[in-house]
Structures are given as structure tokens and as C-alpha cells.
UniProtKB/TrEMBL annotation:
It comes from the Bacteria. Keywords: Coiled coil. The keyword Coiled coil applies. InterPro entries: Endonuclease_MobA/VirD2. Pfam families: Relaxase. This is Relaxase/mobilization nuclease domain-containing protein. Residues 27-160 form the MobA/VirD2-like nuclease domain. Residues 347-374 form a coiled coil.
Length: 468
């Protein structure tokens, strides 16, 4: 399934809504009595089914808020690959998207065209929000942040593949987001897993307490006269002055003091640690099998995190660090991904990469200076226009935050300035912005390398032997 970029309909000279009217007539196939929509079978929306009624409802909303001018509406096109789905399912997907993304906020109409080899749906919606009167404003990145998660979710509900874009996808799709977060554990999950593991290793409560202490926990027993029962508070020093604490009463069934006493005797209950290890192992498997990573200390940290309860002696590893890595596995996997993608097996390679990035930064700074010199050639009036362009760009960001309709006026003026200024000036402005963005990215990458070097140059305890 593929979705085109969103298109907007500008105000037309003479009749402001002429383009909007033509677009509605087109998707309803008024010229051929709706032949493309199986004569109205595959038409829907919240503004009626007759093209005149729909347009009037759109215009009524504009009149209600005094906004007949400016952009008139927006147009989505959703295309399905030949044979990917049937008419009813395609229609349901488009309908579900409109209901979730537009809801009651905008007047809209949609139609499925069935006249081509591939089914494709058209969606037209009003530029004016009928609830608050503000105008819809699509900006770069909205696909990934807001629209794509909705369309992906709808597709999966109907058994279709998540949508793909012709443009480069920056954000995660809903399916990728769901997969990325599958297997994430939190500190309480790990505490429960540690308790389950300690129970399996102990024959008495004394052994249980000793095992938990070996795993890095401090335990304090209290008696509640109100509840007439004992409870335990678990705490672990996480470093940097941070301490994780949790009372057993908050851990759920099977983890109160009296329940643990019984479980130590019978070995009954769940084995949370096995589930956690399997979840973490599934996410980390591609990197655990990487021969390039196996000589790095980052790999050792990953191995410890996903195999902690399988180690011959888990008590000798740095328990607080291992638990941090279990909770922040995605960050550790990002470290491994960086090492693997850039083929950086050791500290020496990391230092070489940092040197390369430093040289790249110097080149970019030198290039940026050449563009700065262009300012010396500018006429005063050109400089004023360029300054106005910058100011408009800043205003555009602020109107996005204040939800104003002035963005149309601002964007039109920016386009006008682009047509007046010499191309070199605007190119210099854009290139400087791109260089600054690249310098920012390199600075961030240097931070990643410094972080990795901190791990790769750390001492490894000689008594930790990793076998698999």
C-alpha cells in the first residue's frame, strides 16, 4: 500500500473555492455519474454524498468562522497495489483512516475509485476546523509523527501491510514502533525476576535473603500492625546517588513476605526471569551472533544483560550495571548497531573514527566560511529581503505553536522573496543551514563515540568468564 504526499488547494481568483469544488466533483466522478465509484457505492464522509451538499457544508463552516479566503482544502490519495485487497476492504481502510485522523474536527468526503488496475481512495477535507475555526496546517515531518502511525494501525487491523512512502521515511512506523518496544522490561520486572530466581536457588529463607544480598539488594523487614503481617522493602544502589526501592506489597500476588516463605518451601510460582531473558535475547540475537562485536566490551555488557540468570555465577557481575543495561537494552543495542555498521571492533578503531569526524568538522567549518563571504557581495536591499525571509521563517515556527492561520500569508511571502533574491543567496542560506545541521549531527556522533570509548577502555574483571 502507498500513500501520496498531501496536496493543498489554494484560493482561486474570482471564485475562491473553485479548486475545492472541482476536486470534490472529480473524486465523486460527477462528470460520469459516479462510474469510478461504482455509481456512489464507494462514497462516504461526514458532509453528505451529493457534490453540491458537500461543498455547501464546507462553505458553511468557512462562513461560520469568516474564513472563505486562503487555502480551501486538502487532498489525500491512498493507493493499493494490484491484487492487494478487494473493494470492500479498501473502502473500509479509507473510511477508518478518516474517522480516526479527521474525526468530527473537519468536514470531509472520500471515494474509492475502482476503474483502474489498482484500487485507490481519494480524501478531500476542509481547510477550516469546524470545532475551533483554526486552519489545518501540514508541516514537514507530520507524516511520520501523526499520519503514518494511524494509517499503519488501520492497515494492520484489516490484514494489510503497513504503508510505504516514496519519500524517505524518517520516523518509525506503528509496526516498527511496536516491534522496537516488544520485550522492554522495567525495574520492577527485574526485581520480580530476581526474587523468582532467588527462590529457585534457595532451600530456606536464610538462603533466600543471602542470595538477594549477593545480587546487590538490601532488605528491610517491617511489621504492619494495621494489616497484622510482615512486609519487606527491597533497595538497590544504582550509582550516582540513586537508589531503587520497592515494597513487596506493590509487586503483586506471590511476592509478599508470607507468600515468599511458602514459595521457598514448595518452589511454586512463576519464573519471570526466564520470560525476561527470552524477550531480551530475541531483541539482541542479531548482535549476539556478530563475530565483529565479540571482542568488544560493549558486547560483554550486552551478553551479561540478556544472559544474566544463565551465567555460571551471576553474582560476580556488576549487578547494578547489568540491571541498567536490561532496562535500557535499546540504548545498548544502539551502541552495538553503531559499532557493527561502522565496523569499529575496538578502542583503536573508535579513536580513528573520532579523528576522521574531527577532520570532517574542520572541512565543513571552512566551507561555511566561503558562504559567509557571500554576504559581503549583497546589496543592502538584498540583505533586507534575506533578513525578512529569516524573520518569516522564525514566525512560521511560532504560529505553528500558537495555532494561528497566519502561516498561509507567511509562506506566500517567503515564496515571493525566493523569486526575487538571486539564487546564490538563498543557496548559501540553505547550505549554511545544512552545514550547521551536519555539524550538529557530527557533534552528537562524537558524543556516542566518547560514550563507547568509556566502555571499551574500562577494566574487565578477570573473574568474569563468559561462555555460551
Amino acid at each position: 500500500m502507498a500513500t501520496t504526499i498531501l496536496m493543498h488547494m489554494k484560493e482561486s481568483p474570482g471564485i475562491p473555492h473553485a479548486h475545492l469544488r472541482n476536486a470534490i466533483d472529480y473524486i465523486l466522478d460527477v462528470k460520469h455519474d459516479g462510474a469510478k465509484t461504482d455509481y456512489g457505492t464507494f462514497v462516504g464522509g461526514n458532509s453528505g454524498t451529493d457534490h453540491r451538499e458537500i461543498l455547501n457544508n464546507f462553505l458553511d463552516t468557512k462562513d461560520l468562522f469568516g474564513k472563505r479566503d486562503g487555502r480551501q482544502g486538502y487532498h489525500f490519495v491512498v493507493s493499493f497495489a494490484p491484487g492487494e485487497t478487494d473493494k470492500d476492504t479498501a473502502f473500509s481502510v479509507v473510511k477508518a483512516f478518516c474517522e480516526e485522523y479527521l474525526g468530527d474536527a473537519y468536514d470531509y468526503v472520500f471515494a474509492l475509485h475502482t476503474d483502474k488496475g489498482h484500487l485507490h481512495g481519494h480524501i478531500i477535507f476542509n481547510s477550516v476546523n469546524r470545532l475551533d475555526g483554526y486552519k489545518y496546517h501540514y508541516k514537514k515531518g507530520d507524516w511520520e509523527r501523526y499520519i503514518q502511525p494511524v494509517t499503519d494501525r488501520v492497515c494492520m487491523e484489516y490484514g494489510l501491510k503497513p504503508l510505504t512512502f516514496e519519500e524517505k521515511r524518517v520516523g518509525l512506523s506503528y509496526a516498527e514502533w511496536q516491534q522496537k518496544n516488544k520485550g522492554v522490561v522495567n525495574k520492577q520486572d527485574i526485581l520480580k525476576a530476581d526474587i523468582d530466581y532467588a527462590i529457585q536457588q534457595s532451600e530456606t529463607m536464610e538462603q533466600y535473603i543471602s542470595t538477594m544480598k549477593q545480587m546487590g539488594y538490601e532488605m528491610k523487614q517491617h511489621y504492619s500492625y494495621k494489616e497484622k503481617r510482615s512486609f519487606i522493602t527491597y533497595s538497590m544502589n544504582e550509582g550516582d546517588g540513586k537508589v531503587f526501592r520497592r515494597r513487596d506489597r506493590r509487586l503483586g500476588s506471590g511476592y509478599r513476605f508470607d507468600e515468599i516463605v511458602q514459595r521457598v518451601k514448595t518452589k511454586d510460582g512463576i519464573r519471570t526471569y526466564e520470560d525476561i531473558l527470552e524477550q531480551l535475547n530475541r531483541k539482541a540475537e542479531p548482535y549476539l551472533r556478530s563475530t565483529m562485536l565479540k571482542g568488544s566490551r560493549t558486547f560483554y555488557r550486552l551478553y551479561q544483560a540478556v544472559n544474566y540468570y544463565r551465567l555460571p555465577n551471576p553474582f560476580v557481575v556488576p549487578s547494578a550495571q547489568v540491571r541498567k543495561d536490561m532496562v535500557r537494552l535499546d540504548k545498548l543495542l544502539e551502541d552495538c548497531r553503531y559499532l557493527k555498521e561502522h565496523q569499529l571492533p575496538d578502542a583503536a578503531a573508535l579513536k580513528q573514527k573520532r579523528q576522521f569526524l574531527q577532520e570532517k568538522m574542520e572541512e565543513l567549518k571552512s566551507e561555511r566560511k566561503t558562504y559567509y563571504r557571500i554576504k559581503d557581495m549583497m546589496r543592502p536591499e538584498d540583505g533586507e529581503l534575506l533578513e525578512e525571509y529569516r524573520a518569516l521563517a522564525r514566525q512560521l515556527m511560532s504560529v505553528e505553536q500558537t495555532h494561528s492561520d497566519r502561516f498561509e500569508e507567511i509562506e506566500d511571502r517567503m515564496e515571493e522573496i525566493k523569486s526575487i533574491l538571486p539564487h546564490d543567496y538563498l543557496e548559501a542560506e540553505d547550505r549554511v543551514a545544512a552545514i550547521n545541521q551536519e555539524l550538529k549531527r557530527i557533534k552528537k556522533e562524537n558524543g556516542v563515540i566518547d560514550h563507547l570509548l568509556g566502555t571499551e577502555t574500562a577494566e574487565l574483571r578477570p573473574d568474569i568468564i563468559l561462555k555460551k
